[in-house]
């Protein structure tokens, strides 16, 4: 598994405001959207392309366009939805599948409550969106699920990650034959006893959508 920390001053600037408890929900949503667009740029460095012949006003030439099958973007409900628009701005022709996963706050294990994905993911490049890689339970389950359905290249985009979550993914997904990459805005210090990332930004879903 490859881990890429998108080390860029604009990302660090936006993350600082995202973390700040004084940042209100509309601003939090906008910053998330902007951050995803920047992270998507890094995450799609190896998106598959095919040659494409065009004619400019001056001459014929060959460029490239996204190859088929198109990439599949998979936001993990609920907080991953806040990352979808920013990702689709970069990959407007991608398809979107949804996975609803909830973390049991006592056991911290992931439970799937909604699944709207194509059955066959053979040879698909998948981009999983989940803002917080905390214990890693949700992302490990989501990535394994996609790989077992045939996805052959999986990139997860997270705004923040905890070292514990990254270690868990490294060990739990080591048997997968498909390449897995994590692209994240920052790796924070640790998890606290409630499974929250420290310093983190609190509950990403609550900050995007309000407390339910
Ligand atoms: N999920 C969140 O939204 N925040 C954390 O810090 C950990 C998991």
Write the layout of secondary structure elements.
Layout: E1 2-5, H1 9-19, H2 25-43, E2 49-55, E3 60-66, E4 72-77, H3 84-90, E5 95-96, E6 98-103, E7 110-116, E8 125-129, E9 132-133, H4 137-148, E10 153-161, H5 163-172, E11 180-187, E12 190-191, E13 197-198, H6 204-209
Parallel strand pairs: 1-11, 4-5, 4-6, 4-8, 8-10, 9-10, 10-11
Antiparallel strand pairs: 2-3, 6-7, 12-13
The structure holds uracil.
Residues 79, 132, 134, 195-197, 200, 203-205 line the site of uracil (URA).
Relevant terms:
212 residues, alpha/beta, globular, 32% strand, 9-stranded mixed β-sheet, PRTase_dom, two-stranded antiparallel sheet, 31% helix, binds uracil, 6 helices, 13 strands, Rossmann fold
Compute the average pLDDT: 95
Treating each run of at least 4 consecutive H or I residues as one helix, how many helices?
Answer: 6
Radius of gyration: 17 Å
* Count of the domains: 1
Helical content band: 25-40%
Q: In this structure, how is the largest beta sheet organized? A: 9 strands, mixed
Query: Unreliable segments (pLDDT under 50, ≥5 consecutive)?
Result: none
Shape: globular
What would you say this structure looks like, in words?
There is one protein chain. With 212 residues, this protein is an alpha/beta fold. The protein has six helices and 13 strands. The chain has helices spanning 9-19, 25-43, 84-90, 137-148, 163-172, 204-209; strands at 2-5, 49-55, 60-66, 72-77, 95-96, 98-103, 110-116, 125-129, 132-133, 153-161, 180-187, 190-191, 197-198. The strands form three sheets. Strands 1, 4, 5, 6, 7, 8, 9, 10 and 11 form a nine-stranded mixed sheet that branches. Strands 2-3 form a two-stranded antiparallel sheet. A two-stranded antiparallel sheet has the order 12-13. Helix 1 runs antiparallel to helix 2 (25-43) and helix 2 (25-43) runs parallel beside helix 3. The chain is globular and about 60 Å long. The mean pLDDT is 95. The structure holds uracil. Residues 79, 132, 134, 195-197, 200, 203-205 line the site of uracil (URA). Belongs to the UPRTase family.
């Amino acid at each position: 598994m490859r881990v890429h920390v998108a080390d860029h001053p604009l990302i660090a600037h936006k993350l600082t405001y995202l973390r700040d408890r004084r940042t209100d929900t509309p601003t939090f949503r906008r910053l998330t959207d902007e951050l995803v667009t920047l992270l998507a740029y890094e995450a799609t460095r190896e998106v598959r392309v095919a040659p494409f012949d065009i004619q400019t006003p001056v001459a014929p030439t060959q460029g490239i366009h996204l190859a088929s099958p198109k990439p599949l973007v998979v936001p993990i409900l609920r907080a991953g939805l806040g990352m979808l628009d920013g990702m689709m701005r970069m990959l407007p022709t991608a398809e979107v599948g949804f996975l609803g996963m909830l973390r049991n706050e006592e056991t911290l294990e992931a439970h799937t409550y909604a699944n709207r994905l194509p059955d066959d993911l053979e040879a698909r490049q998948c981009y999983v969106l989940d803002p917080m890689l905390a214990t890693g339970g949700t992302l490990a389950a989501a990535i394994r699920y996609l790989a077992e359905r045939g996805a052959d290249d999986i990139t997860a985009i997270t705004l923040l990650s905890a070292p514990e979550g990254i270690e868990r993914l490294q060990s739990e997904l080591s048997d997968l034959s498909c390449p897995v990459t994590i692209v994240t805005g920052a790796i924070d210090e640790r998890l606290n006893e409630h499974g929250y990332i420290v310093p983190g930004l609190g509950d990403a879903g609550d900050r995007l959508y309000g407390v339910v």
